[in-house]
Specification:
Elements (H helix, E strand, L loop, with lengths): L5 H11 L6 H13 L2 H17 L1 E2 L6 E2 L5 H4 L4 E8 L2 H10 L4 E5 L17 H7 L6 E4 L5 H14 L5 E4 L15 H9 L2 E2 L1
Parallel strand pairs: 3-4, 3-5, 5-6
Antiparallel strand pairs: 1-2, 6-7
This protein binds zinc ion.
Amino acid sequence: MDLYSGYINKLIDELATLPGIGAKSAQRMAFHIINMPKDRVERFAHTILDAKENVRYCKVCYTLTDSETCPICANLKRDHKTIMVVENIRDLAAYEKTGKYQGIYHVLHGAISPMIGIGPSDIKLKELIKRLEEDVEEVIIATNSSLEGETTAMYISKLIKPTGIKVSRIASGVPVGGDLEYIDEITLLRALEGRIEL
Ligand code: ZN
């Protein structure tokens, strides 16, 4: 039995496809949107479209940005010889929030996971290797301490070792299986400062 009209069902279904949004939240959001003034709904819809049309990957580090190069990569005051490798943009944001890291980043957009069929070519790995042709002194691997994160870290270090570039891994102060995003800044800084050369 359909409780609601086709339009509202369609809206609920769309919202429910968003990460972390269950059926109940999707319903609540749908009713909220229906009750919003029309101009607000229009603004909201345009914001989504504008973001989709204008946001792209930074051509250097692959974080999301409005321009060709993100503000971090474009900042000449940052240390461009140190690259921190993270799994996703949320992890980059977590390190940026500490305000202490002066290097630049590389966003992999995932981690190697043979279990679900994600191999090295499914993440931004060859893009990282390409960057090593520039003047790079250290690559800090800050993937999560999950099985996938560790597998990825090992894989990357094996690739980089022969180049002679220093490779380090953030310290294990980060709890196993911990998502970097949810770890407090002090723990993150400690993990960074206590990094171990591989
Ligand atoms: Zn960038």
